[in-house]
């Protein structure tokens, strides 16, 4: 999907703006280069397309954190200015959960717990980001009968992540792509997770559709903003020049 197609889709969806956050997964297992991109080219295209649409198009990147690539990320990003940087975990112990192999031989508690502990380890190691992306990505492709991450079962892991984020001014993302139906079922966002984030003092929240195709721009935004408001969160934010701009959720629901 080109930047122009994305802008057209966002405009038709009634969005006031959006961020292009291309994946950057350096040292991906197996030498996979699908998740590398040229930030200079991306930013040039955004500047060009922005002239044709009355919406805000922000320059972003989604960095995939791994123990092996932290130094490479620092080197890669130092020469570019982004509006927003999302940090995500796409590979666990050299395996992408998307492929399914990660779950083999693991019960849910082991698979999910490892992912959440790695998330905490990685954001402490590399904290030059604005948003923690799809914190429950591990549940998206899981084969278990109950795929959702439930706060009561992972309270220690989630509390550690949230406390670090809140202290360091990071935003939590609700990624609506995680809750799409796959193979006849979908994970559910446990309200206790957002309630706990709010109780601990979390205020920075973003909502992203992780749209890789035009028809999915803004997918279920109103639903999940209303859901977040019911859980005690009052604002949804976007980042520009690495600074958060909170907006009242009531303005969108």
Automatic annotation (TrEMBL):
Pathway recorded for this protein: Amino-acid biosynthesis; L-histidine biosynthesis; L-histidine from 5-phospho-alpha-D-ribose 1-diphosphate: step 8/9
UniProt xrefs under Pfam families: PHP (PF02811)
Enzyme Commission code: 3.1.3.15
Name of the protein: histidinol-phosphatase
Domain called PHP: residue spans: 2-177
InterPro entries found in the cross-reference section: Histidinol_P_phosphatase_HisJ, PHP_dom, Pol/histidinol_Pase-like
Enzyme class: hydrolase
Keywords from the UniProt entry: Amino-acid biosynthesis, Histidine biosynthesis, Hydrolase
Family designation: Belongs to the PHP hydrolase family. HisK subfamily.
One GO term (biological process): L-histidine biosynthetic process
Cellular component aspect of the GO annotation: cytoplasm
Organism for this UniProt entry: bioreactor metagenome
GO molecular function terms listed in the Swiss-Prot or TrEMBL record: histidinol-phosphatase activity
Gene it is expressed from: hisK_14
Reaction(s) this enzyme catalyzes, per UniProt: L-histidinol phosphate + H2O = L-histidinol + phosphate
